């Protein structure tokens, strides 16, 4: 988990979720904060930032209109995870370990150290085992003293129904496009990749992973060349699956991204042919000239048949059909459609 300064956390919360931060400032001002919340939303949607800002507002020495100052000692200690009455837990590896749960239970049972307020932030609450989550239920439902807890998850479906029923659920909307674009710019992403990335994810942490070893640029280039060879009716498209695509894809997430990219490059053709979009809206602007040529020449029925074929691939992957087999079969069927 990336650590930010108090002011950076407050800024992040207000930029990513302005309506939610405004709502919570009003709740704090009116002293209507409930004892436990479940924050649910996509990775990168600002759940941690909002939980931290609300927590800071509870302890801030200069709180104004329900908002923390971000400059006082209380705010800075919370931001640096150094406040004794603010317990922040995140997964150790792929799960929240039993020792972490024992620590949480012990802390839930204690009174505040410095005042009368305690706060708990459980990041990745879905990473707790069923046993661990159940063991926290009574503390979440009936906390000792003046306690507020925030459980954060990317996937509400992985949270026990008993937890959901005992917390106030807050659904986090996706980031506004302008905010996400701003984050991409700060990350140094090439502007020609903005549209493609936005069609694939809303999570800046995921984009950072794709930027490692220039993976996104490499896979985008390979998919572009596969697409062009396919439209030349060249068997090279088939051999590219093994020689060019497979070496770049070594996990399930990468497989899904590749299949989604196959959809998007053909969607560019569809949009050019029927929606008259500009090159600025293309996901694969690097091959815009070829996309326009293909869109002009390809018959409607062929195009729709290929897009239907691409859409089927994710279902095949979910059925655990071998990824390389999916790509090779898709290539052969596409070549046959294009004949």
From TrEMBL:
The keyword Nucleotidyltransferase applies. Its EC number is 2.7.7.7. Keywords: Nucleotidyltransferase, Transferase. GO terms for molecular function: DNA-directed DNA polymerase activity. Coiled coil: none annotated. It is an enzyme of class 2 (transferase). It comes from the Bacteria. This is DNA polymerase III subunit delta. The gene is holB.
């Amino acid at each position: 988990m990336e650590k930010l300064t108090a002011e950076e956390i407050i800024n992040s919360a207000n930029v990513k979720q302005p309506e939610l931060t405004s709502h919570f400032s009003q709740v704090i001002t009116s002293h209507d904060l409930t004892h436990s919340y479940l924050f649910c939303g996509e990775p990168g949607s600002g759940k941690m930032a909002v939980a931290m800002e609300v927590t800071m507002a509870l302890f801030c020495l200069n709180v104004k209109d329900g908002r923390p100052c971000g400059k006082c000692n209380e705010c800075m200690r919370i931001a640096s995870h150094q406040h004794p009455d603010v317990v922040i837990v995140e997964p150790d590896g792929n799960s929240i370990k039993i020792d972490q749960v024992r620590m949480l239970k012990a802390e839930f049972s204690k009174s505040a150290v410095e005042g009368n307020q305690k706060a708990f932030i459980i990041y990745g609450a879905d990473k707790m085992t069923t046993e661990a989550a159940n063991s926290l239920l009574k503390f979440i439902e009936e906390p000792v003293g003046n306690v507020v807890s925030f459980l954060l998850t990317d996937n509400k479906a992985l949270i026990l129904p008993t937890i959901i029923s005992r917390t106030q659920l807050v659904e986090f909307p996706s980031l506004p496009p302008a905010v996400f674009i701003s984050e991409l710019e700060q990350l140094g992403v090439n502007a020609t990749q903005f549209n493609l990335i936005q069609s694939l994810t809303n999570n800046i942490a995921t984009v950072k992973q794709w930027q490692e070893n220039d993976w996104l640029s490499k896979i985008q280039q390979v998919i572009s060349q596969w697409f062009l060879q396919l439209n030349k009716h060249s068997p090279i498209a088939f051999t590219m699956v093994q020689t060019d695509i497979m070496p770049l894809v070594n996990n399930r997430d990468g497989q899904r991204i590749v299949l989604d990219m196959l959809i998007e490059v053909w969607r560019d053709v569809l949009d050019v042919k029927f929606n008259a979009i500009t090159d600025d809206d293309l996901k694969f602007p690097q091959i815009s000239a070829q996309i326009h040529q293909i869109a002009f020449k390809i018959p409607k029925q062929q195009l729709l048949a290929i897009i239907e074929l691409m859409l089927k691939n994710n279902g095949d992957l979910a059925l655990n059909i071998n990824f390389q087999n999916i790509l090779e079969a898709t290539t052969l069927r596409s070549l046959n459609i294009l004949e």
